Amino acid sequence: MVKKYLPWQGILLLFLGLFFLRNWMLPMVSDDIPYAFIWDGADRGNLLDGVGMRQRITSFGDIIVSQWSHYMTWGGRILGIGLTQLFAWQGKELFNVLNTLVFGGLMLLVFRMGTGLSLRQMNRTYMLWLAFCFWFLLPDPFLTTLWMCGSCVFLWMGLLEFLFLLPFALKYWRPDFWNQPPIWAVPLMALSGLCAGWSVETGAAATGLIILLALWHFKRQHELQPWMVAGFICLCLGGIMLVEAPGEMVRLELQRQFEYNPGLPADMYWTPLMFRINFWECFWPVTKLWLPLVLLIGIYLRQLPQGQRWNKVTKFQAVMVAGALGVMLVMMFVPMAPARAGFFSTVAVIAASLSALKELLPSLKVFYSKYKGACHMVLASCLALGLLTAGLLCYVEWDVRQQWLSRIDYINAHKEQELVVVHQIDVLPLADELCEHWSCVTWNTDVLAWGSDLEPRPEGSHNLMYAQYYGWKKVITDGEDRRVE
Q1: Within 13 Å and on the Cβ side, how many CA atoms surround 133?
Q2: Could you tell me the CA-to-CA distances from 237 to 204, 208, 216 in Å, in that order?
Q3: From the CA atom positions of the chain, what is the Rg in Å?
Q4: Which residue in 39, 75, 79, 78 sits closest to 57, CA to CA?
Q5: 244-298 pLDDT, tens per residue?
């Protein structure tokens, strides 16, 4: 019955339906609101305390002007932030639909990369593994795939990066791929490389390392082609444009002067304390989620005979894991590195695990026929855990959505007042526990405290920008500042 009524397409649609529902329940929050306005680089941008009056985005021309100012005075992520401004202007309903499609597209893209197979060769086993990985193993999925600004910077840029990697992977798995490349291969890969390099720092760096190793392999095999070289050159150019944006140094100075951030002081950077914080808040929360992926790769390696463990599949796995792990090690040296920086790295290891799954499938079928009952129990347990967590996450997100909508109604009813005081958004204690031991999978107190909720300080940038966005005068929350422990 399962085989007849629930093909892999059905599993994907159910999974994406849940993802769309969670997108719909999440309002525009945090930096989504400031990016609905033209970036005013001449007046410290839109994200710092004491921000002045700003002009709403009303056209594509406004986005271009805004991103030029953003590039010169804040940072180089013009593709991700440009998309954020587009959706902040056009409305979150459009984002909800397109974000769901991008999420599903990345899943299918990773399958093709990791296996070299066409979508016609997809089956339920692959799709269940992908659903498991994308539900349980992504770092900070609430911030990297659901939150609008975070999704545009990580999920959407991840799609660009893996789209660039795909032709290299297909050429590796199928040597006949592009034996005689089409005339548009070079300009296409040049543009794709530029976008992948100009995406987000961690993903671009990992992509660069993977491509460098790929070029070395193809050169040794006498298969190096112009589109590969053109893509790599433009990837590097895009990376330079990203990290060498004039606004990078301007932002650091502005943040030092004006940003309210009771975090690690600058004089504690590159000290044992910083490395300890980065390990426990970035490196370990990301890499611990790789354990099921590494286990699957290990099972594949273990069943290989001695002398055959360095083969086409294990070389692919080594390159993907090297690119992923290399970036995570570099992040140990970045002050206050967040776990969401490991998004690309985790997806790369998922691709590596799919290559192992492909090789193990024949033996898995034999194992299933011998231990059908045990396999059904494991699958049922995973399904039950998935449904339980889905129910919990949706409950938390629905509750927060209702609090947001009730707050907006209350402020609108009192918007003639000079100052409106509202209660802070609260989450269930269970949500904090879940995010502490798993990952940032939903709303929690830290996410609300660090920018997603309003603040008790009148000069807080989000208080001022929310007031401009909704047409209020002044608004603050009651209670203490939750960022101060």
Answers
A1: 32
A2: 11, 11, 19
A3: 23
A4: 39
A5: 999 988 887 887 777 655 566 667 778 888 899 899 999 999 999 999 999 999 9
**From residue 467, how far is each of 56, 87, 170, 476 by CA, in Å?**
13, 19, 50, 10
**pLDDT on residue 90:** 94
State the amino acid at position 449 in one-letter form: A
User: Rounded to whole angstroms, how far apart are CA atoms 204 and 345?
Assistant: 11
Which token pair is 292? 């099921």
Read off the DSSP letter of residue 281.
I
Residues belonging to the chain: 485
pTM over 0.90: yes
DSSP one-letter code for 56: B
pLDDT higher than threshold 50 for residue 1 = no
Q: Tell me whether residue 210 is exposed, middle or buried, using C-beta atoms within 10 angstroms of its C-beta: 0 to 12, 13 to 18, 19 or more.
A: buried
pLDDT (tens digit per residue) in 337-389:
899 999 999 999 999 999 999 999 988 878 778 777 888 898 889 899 999 99
The residue written with tokens 């943040």 in the block is 255
Distance CA 159, CA 187 (A): 19
- Nearest Cα to 359, choosing from 285, 424, 302? 302
Dihedral sign of CA atoms 112, 116, 119, 123 in order: negative
**Burial state string for 374-399 with b = 16 or more CB within 10 A and e = fewer than 16:** eeeeeeeeeeeebeebeebbeebbeb
Residue 395 has, within 13 A of its CA and on its CB side, a CA count of 10
* Helix residue ranges per DSSP H, 221-289: 226-243, 247-258, 272-278, 284-287
CA dist., res. 294 & res. 279, Å (int): 19
How far, in Å, CA of 428 to CA of 444, rounded? 8
**421: part of which helix (H) or strand (E)?**
strand 420-422
Would you state the structure tokens that stand for residue 279, as one six-digit string? 């390990």
Q: What is the pLDDT of residues 161-194, one digit of tens each?
A: 999 999 999 999 998 999 899 999 999 999 999 9
Sign of the CA dihedral running 303, 308, 313, 319: positive
Q: 354: number of CA atoms within 13 Å, CB side?
A: 31
How far is it, in rounded angstroms, from Cα 455 to Cα 453?
A: 6
Q: How far apart are CA 238 and CA 77, in angstroms?
A: 11
Instruction: Please choose, from the candidates 389, 328, 344, 384, the residue with its C-alpha nearest in 3D space to the C-alpha of residue 145.
Output: 344
Average pLDDT over residues 225-254: 93
Neighbours of 405 (CB within 10 A): 11
Banded model confidence at residue 4, pLDDT cuts 50, 70, 90: low
